[in-house]
Amino acid sequence: MIDKLMMSLQFPFVRYALIVGVLIALCSSLLGVTLVLKRFSFIGDGLSHVAFGAMSIAEVLELTNNMLIVLPTTILCAILLLRSGKNAKIKGDAAVAMISVGALAFGYLLMNIFSTSSNLTGDVCSTLFGSTSILTLTQAEVWICAILSVVVVVIYILFYNKIFAVTFDEDFAKATGIQADLYNLMIAVVIAVIIVLAMNLVGSLLISALVIFPALSTMRIFRSFRSVTICSAILSVFCALSGLVVSIAAGTPVGSTIVAADVLMFFICQIIGAVKGGIRV
Amino acid sequence: MRRFVAFCIVLSMMLTIAGCDQPQVETYPSMTAYLAVPEVYQTAVTNPQQDQPVTAEMAFTNGENGIDIDLTVLSSTMVYSMVYCMLTAPDEYTGMVVKMRGLSSSFHDEDNDIWYYACVVQDATACCQQGIEYELTDDYACPDDYPVDGQDICVIGTFDTYLDNGNTYYVLREGRLE
Question: Residue A281: inside a domain, yes or no?
Answer without folding.
Answer: no
